[in-house]
Amino acid sequence: MRKRVVCAPLAVLAMALLAGMAVASTPSVTITSPKVGQSVSLRKTPVLGIAGTAAFATPAATNTKYYLRRDGCGTSNDNPHLSVTSGTDAGDGCGLTFAIVGVGSEVDHGAYVDYPASDGLPLTIDSSRNITGVIDLEGIQSASAGLVTVDLTLEGLENGSGVTVGTDSVQVLMVPGQTSYPVSFSFQPNGSVDKNDLAGIDLRIYIHGPYINSGFIANSGASWITLPTWSASFAQSVQVSLDDPSFANPIAATLDPSGWTAAVRTPAIGTHTLYARSIQGFDVSSVASSTFKVTR
């Protein structure tokens, strides 16, 4: 039996980050000053200048296509979700609700399904281009008829908080004898998320209107959403840590075209180790280190 399913969006959205992240080019970093084994005079150099180089991936415009997937229909774990890979879904054609209502009435306004992304994460959004896709609606037998409204809300998980990426609403008239309605949509992402990194996304689909026996979503590659994205994050930084490889209290370096620089108070006389790492979005480089000596 086809059932109405209501899912909590942000709970499953937060889990998306743990489910899998997209593989990106790892940034890199080097320390050029102080050099390994270098001696620094505490009396002559009360403030230690630090420098190095860093390399980051160059963001390029791309797209990330997600398919609406579902593992079952009316089971204990239907698991509606988005995936960058397509396949045959056990929950193909599972619906939100079905009912017969009169003109001017609507079905349950609480009927919606959330599709959180299970892979292809994180994402960097390009708000200069439209989000596009298709929600393939199915009717039941030949009796499906009426006006169907499909409301779409795309949310993202940014810095641990939910943000609205964009919304759209599309209408389709279902007629007896037709059982498949590919509903195309296109809308521009909110400018507030442009070039921002999202750890998760969730597509909420709400189907409503005065219709008869219609509004079931076809999966198995028939329904999808394409997001305009960047191949790499615009968030780039270098962190420095003195005598602490855990970076418990990192020092933010200054980036420039030739590399990065920072300054710390020269530590006490003895042997010390400087650590550096570069960060691009969610990707962290291997740690570079340089051991030096502080003398009188």
Major sheet: size, sense and barrel closure?
Answer: 8 strands, antiparallel
Q: Tell me the count of domains.
A: 2
The CATH class designation of the largest domain is Mainly Beta
The span between the termini is 82 Å
Q: What is the CATH fold-level name of the largest domain?
A: Jelly Rolls
- Please tally the β strands and state the result: 23
Beta-strand proportion? over 45%
- Rg result: 26 Å
Architecture per CATH nomenclature, i.e. the level-2 architecture of the largest domain? Sandwich
The CATH H-level homologous superfamily of the largest domain? Galactose-binding domain-like
Element pattern in H and E: HEEEEEEEEEEEEEEEEEEEEEEE
Q: Can you walk me through this structure?
A:
A hairpin with an 8-residue loop joins strand 17 and strand 18. This protein folds into two domains: 32-59 and 236-295, Sandwich (Immunoglobulin-like); 60-230, Jelly Rolls (Sandwich), CATH 2.60.120.260. It is mainly beta. The protein is built from one helix and 23 strands. The longest helix has 11 residues, at 9-19. The strands form four sheets. Strands 4, 5, 7, 8, 11, 12, 15 and 16 form an eight-stranded antiparallel β-sheet that branches. Strands 2, 17, 18, 21, 22 and 23 form a six-stranded mixed β-sheet that branches. Helix content is 4%, strand content 49%.
How do you describe this structure in short?
By secondary structure, this protein is mainly beta.
Features:
about 300 residues; mainly beta; Immunoglobulin-like; Jelly Rolls; 2 domains; 8-stranded antiparallel sheet; 6-stranded mixed sheet; elongated; disordered N terminus
